[in-house]
Design goal:
The complex is a heterodimer of chains A (360) and B (272). Chain A is α+β, with helices and mostly antiparallel strands. Chain A contains eight helices and 21 strands. The chains are: A alpha+beta (360), B mainly alpha (272).
């Protein structure tokens, strides 16, 4: 659907995008995820045609976009600031793009009413645009773009200005809207939770380059490097060293001891340093020493972060300076709240959930 | 508590200053309408009785009507042309990252500080050199140059007060640059455009020095007034005329200030 081929972009001497290639499929909810300055918005604006590519090319629906101005591209965009026209009412805002299509007035009105139903604002047609709340403007901006039945809808941080509750509600609505319409959505966001919730696939960007393109679960479970691992979700990092004895490979993990390596990690060279990443929910925490059959590490509960429905427990273990973050829903044998700070705890961990990364 | 009262107590000195300021500013101007209703020919006290005679006299002066009509024409052309020229200039200044933007803006604003006399002489010698006959057209050209900075300064806040992504949204929704201007840009800056039209018209209508240098045989209203100052018996009529112009100018300037949102900056950016 959209092919970005070796695209670079520089503003004067500043390089905003470095040789990015990616393919966005028909009907996919695709996210560009990155911190500010990572180039995600620049890439989106190049797809929309507001910025020219410095080198490489963008092909949308089989058609190269080099000489196609924004108003001729088969895409529409929802702007971060909504860009609702303040001098028009809601109906005229939504119908804005229809003028050019020479659609009769009553047909236009029917289309707008259909859109107002879709965005759950029926009867709002005659409201002034300036009377709308942020969430309502957001929906009108969506309707204004969707009424033109674009092949691709671009969304530039569309939920950034909304408060948390409204944002979560709009996320669900966006997702169901996309599934209902089957249009390709390309979302730019700095919010990793938002990207994980909404997307079929995510491109993680930093410093103008794409670090990894994958499904949310693949990015979460198998991040390609430390930057991605730390950007998405909570992650514990452990220094580690590889030890080989013949065909078997073991990894010595700071504070946790030695475990066998298998699968793709088994081929690592003897003596090389590595980094082990583990999610807080990959640990199991016991308030009392588990049965001797289970290999465990003893530590001390150092701090507790109460997050409402769940908690994050921070456990000091010997041989490691930073505490290990452990999710409370993995606590076995007793209620997580009943474990006192400073009391001994025992940790075991799921070896399969361990991600071995190269040191950078 | 005591502190608060100190701040809220009326400041006598400041009030006195404000009154003195207003008197200094407007007392001379107030004499004009006062003596325009005075029955005597000479501007002196005591007043010699009330009359509308001088106003009636204005209605009988053909040359005055002609000059008035000339000024209206020049003012209208100057207002329209300088505002049209100022729109793209103000847009470019506010929207694009231009290299050397500061000096360019300074250069555009220069006519604000060049004395009219010097500017008039310069323009006159230039027009003579290239052989242009002096007429109302040359007056209009001179006025456009001095009005442009005012028009740009009036339009700039309008462009800066609104969000450039609205024009991108319009392009994204399929409209080209022409339609984007008329459907999005112009409605947004319309109050600024009206303010600019009123302000530049007023400037041109009142302007004397450039008109004096550049007008050839056709007189504008200020030039007519100047020419009539030689005849003492006509002076009260001029006062009547000046009163009318004063009222007219005040109304226009107030209207343009209201339109350009002067002093109500808190209303800006409602769509952000």
């Amino acid at each position: 659907m959209i092919h970005v081929q070796n695209v670079s972009k520089s503003f004067g001497r500043v390089i905003a995008i470095r040789d990015v290639s990616l393919t966005i499929n028909q009907g996919e909810f695709f996210s560009l995820l990155g911190a500010s300055g990572s180039g995600k918005t620049t890439l989106l604006r190049m797809i929309a045609g507001f910025e020219a590519v410095s080198s490489g090319r963008i092909v949308i629906d089989g058609q190269p976009m080099e000489d196609v101005p924004p108003h001729r591209r088969p895409i529409n965009m929802v702007f971060q600031s909504y860009a609702i026209f303040p001098h028009m009412n809601v109906r005229d805002n939504i119908a804005y793009g229809l003028r050019r299509l020479a659609i009769p007035r009553d047909r236009q009105n029917a289309m707008v009413d259909e859109m107002l139903d879709l965005i759950a604002l029926p009867g709002y047609g005659d409201r002034r645009a300036t009377q709308l709340s942020g969430g309502q403007m957001q929906r009108v901006a969506l309707a204004r773009a969707l009424i033109l039945k674009p092949k691709v809808l671009l969304l530039d941080e569309p939920l950034g200005a909304l408060d948390k509750q409204l944002r979560e509600q709009m996320q669900l609505e966006l997702r169901s809207l996309q599934q209902k319409l089957g249009i390709t959505f390309v979302l730019v966001t700095h919010d990793q939770e938002e990207a994980l919730t909404l997307s079929d696939r995510i491109a993680v960007m930093a410093n103008g380059a794409v670090l990894q393109v994958d499904t949310p679960s693949a990015l979460y479970d198998n991040p390609g490097n430390r930057r991605i691992a730390s950007f998405i979700g909570n992650m514990n990092f452990f220094d580690a060293t590889i030890h080989r004895t013949g065909a078997a490979a073991e990894i010595e993990i700071e504070g946790l001891g030695r475990v066998f390596l298998n699968g793709k990690d088994a081929g690592r060279r003897d003596g090389t340093p590595a980094l082990v990443a583990m999610r807080p929910e990959s640990f199991v925490l016991f308030g009392e020493k588990p049965a001797p059959a289970t290999a465990s590490v003893q530590g001390t509960l150092q701090a507790r972060q109460y997050l409402g429905g769940r908690q994050m427990l921070y456990v000091d273990i010997k041989g490691r300076s930073a505490p290990v973050a452990v999710a409370s829903n993995t606590v076995r044998g007793q209620d997580a709240l009943s474990i006192k700070q400073g009391s001994p705890v025992w940790l075991t961990w799921n070896h399969d959930a361990m991600v071995v990364l190269d040191c950078e | 508590m005591a502190n608060r009262e100190t701040f809220q107590r009326p400041n006598r000195l400041l009030a006195l200053y404000a009154v003195a300021f207003a008197i200094f500013l407007y007392l001379p101007i107030l004499f004009i309408p006062m003596f325009s209703f005075n029955a005597g020919v000479y501007v002196r006290f005591p007043l010699e009785g009330f009359t509308f005679g001088w106003y009636a006299d204005l209605a009988r002066r053909q040359t005055l009507h002609h000059a008035f009509y000339n000024s209206l024409q020049v003012g209208a052309v100057v207002a329209i042309v300088s505002t049209i020229l100022a729109v793209p200039a103000a847009k470019a200044i506010s929207r694009y990252r231009l290299p050397g933007k500061g000096p360019i803006v300074g250069f555009i604003m220069l006519p604000l500080v060049v004395p009219g006399l010097i500017f008039g002489v310069a323009l006159l010698s230039l027009l003579n050199r290239i052989g242009v006959t002096l007429s109302l057209v040359t007056v209009a050209i001179g006025h456009i140059v001095i009005c442009l900075p005012f028009a740009i300064a009036t339009l700039l806040p309008r462009f800066e007060g609104y969000n450039g992504s609205m024009e991108e949204a319009s392009a994204d929704l399929g409209e080209n640059a022409w339609w984007t201007f008329w459907r999005v840009t112009f409605p947004t800056i319309r109050p600024g455009v009206l303010a600019s039209l009123l302000l530049t018209f007023t400037i041109s209508f009142d302007e004397f020095i450039l008109a004096f240098f550049l007008s050839g045989t056709e007189a504008t209203l200020p030039m007519y007034i100047w020419s009539q100052l030689r005849f003492p018996q006509d002076f009260p009529s001029l006062l009547a005329l000046a009163t009318l112009i004063l009222i007219f100018s005040f109304v226009l300037v107030f209207a343009s200030l209201r339109l350009s949102g002067f002093g109500q900056s808190d209303k800006k950016g409602g769509a952000k």
